[in-house]
Automatic annotation (TrEMBL):
<feature type="domain" description="C2H2-type">
    <location>
        <begin position="208"/>
        <end position="235"/>
    </location>
</feature>
<feature type="domain" description="C2H2-type">
    <location>
        <begin position="292"/>
        <end position="319"/>
    </location>
</feature>
<dbReference type="InterPro" id="IPR013087">
    <property type="entry name" value="Znf_C2H2_type"/>
</dbReference>
<dbReference type="GO" id="GO:0003700">
    <property type="term" value="F:DNA-binding transcription factor activity"/>
</dbReference>
<keyword id="KW-0238">DNA-binding</keyword>
<keyword id="KW-0539">Nucleus</keyword>
<feature type="signal peptide">
    <location>
        <begin position="1"/>
        <end position="15"/>
    </location>
</feature>
<feature type="domain" description="C2H2-type">
    <location>
        <begin position="236"/>
        <end position="263"/>
    </location>
</feature>
<keyword id="KW-0832">Ubl conjugation</keyword>
<keyword id="KW-0862">Zinc</keyword>
<dbReference type="GO" id="GO:0000978">
    <property type="term" value="F:RNA polymerase II cis-regulatory region sequence-specific DNA binding"/>
</dbReference>
<dbReference type="Pfam" id="PF00096">
    <property type="entry name" value="zf-C2H2"/>
</dbReference>
<feature type="domain" description="C2H2-type">
    <location>
        <begin position="180"/>
        <end position="207"/>
    </location>
</feature>
<feature type="domain" description="C2H2-type">
    <location>
        <begin position="68"/>
        <end position="95"/>
    </location>
</feature>
<keyword id="KW-1017">Isopeptide bond</keyword>
<feature type="domain" description="C2H2-type">
    <location>
        <begin position="152"/>
        <end position="179"/>
    </location>
</feature>
<keyword id="KW-0732">Signal</keyword>
Amino acid sequence: MISVIIMQLLNWVVSIQINVAHKQDNWKRDVLIHRLIYCLKKPGPPCHITMSCEVVKIELNKEKNKDFTCHQCGKSLSCKASLKDHMRIHTGEKPFTCPQCGKSFTRKQGFIRHIRVHTGEKPYVCKHCGKTFRNGANLWSHLRVHSHEKPFKCALCVKGFLSKDHLDRHMRVHTEEKPFSCPQCEKCFRTKCSLGIHKRIHIADNPFLCTHCGKHFVSKRNFESHIRIHTGEKPFTCDQCGKSYKWSNSLRIHKLIHSGEQPFKCDQCDKRFVLESQLKDHMRTHTKEKPYLCFVCGKRFTWLGSFKDHLKIHSGVKNLTSARIVRRVSNSQEP
């Protein structure tokens, strides 16, 4: 009976001490477990468990008080393992190599995430919609879609974004920076994705040709979406009312009608809207903004519909393309 109590006490002490040390290096946990078990099993008078734990605690405090500073760049790290990982940035060492594609990584965590590209494993699941992700950071960013949280704010236009990457891309709109250039024609782009799409233009054999109207597309996704205009196919069906749509985004917007969700709220009158574009249009009732300018007579309009009706007054100015150009120009200059 006494031995059982001692073992239970031992397990309790081990669990507490391991939890205290869980953020430290693995070897420290191994040392803790070894010392406790060794003190219990060794012959002769047993040493006190509390004394053994105290020794480990002292060792941990010594580690905590050490200075882990990189001698090359001056950056301070929290522990020896972090400093070791950091030093690979300067040495260029990449000890973790993928056996399938040969790509090498500086950190083990990056290597593990990469392996999931080959295995297709996505262990992180969204509890709201069931969408899966390869790493926890992507899941954390995705959860903001449901909470409507946009913590990354632009200092120039106060627009909010779900992640820092989205904010960084947005900032190039203000700075006009285009860091991604095409090696064939030297055209520059704000995002790597835009450059990738552009590169397909230089490919001689472009398979994305619409046989109905002869229009070319640089991406398969846009081509397939376009084809539905001619075929009338509506593959996206609402599971509640059976209504079908050509595009997935149209179905997503339609489902908000059933849920009653109106995530976009006016900060001036508390009115709510299903779409962000609806909120932007509504804000003009407060700002009195009239972004649509008629180049013929100089009259301005708050709403696109009113602007299009007005264009019919002037002969030869009836197309929507002109309206879009007018709106874009009118945001930057006055008549």
